[in-house]
Amino acid sequence: MKIIVTSIFVQDQDKALEFYSETLGFVKKHDVPAGEFRWITLVSPDEQDGTELLLEPNNHPAAKEYQKKIFAEGIPATMFGVADIRKEYDRLLENGVNFTMEPTKMGEVTIAVFDDTCGNLIQIMQK
């Protein structure tokens, strides 16, 4: 068994698609109508057959509440791995990304946290 799709709640699918593709650099894999919304997934440009990230609309009240609460508590919704966190941090800063935590060494890893502009905090990590 392996993980093929994981999701993240977003306030606006179009805004999220733009941020995750243009700012973060993920590649759109699927964008198909799914009732009132769309099934939008992205993948890493280095692993286009790898795990897909689904941009899930937060239209359900429980989803909105969950998203608001973990954001308010400073809890990242998900984590992405990077090869060089300082380089990625600098690149994202240049693209206007707002970090809530700059690269910080924690044991054997270094992490940083940013706001995805779609209702989530995202953590990046370098091993």
From TrEMBL:
Q: Which Gene3D superfamilies match?
A: 2,3-Dihydroxybiphenyl 1,2-Dioxygenase, domain 1
Stored InterPro entries: Glyas_Bleomycin-R_OHBP_Dase (IPR029068), Glyas_Fos-R_dOase_dom (IPR004360), VOC_core (IPR037523)
Report domain VOC positions. Answer: 1-127
* Superkingdom field: Bacteria
Q: Which residues form a coiled coil?
A: none
Q: What is this protein called?
A: VOC family protein
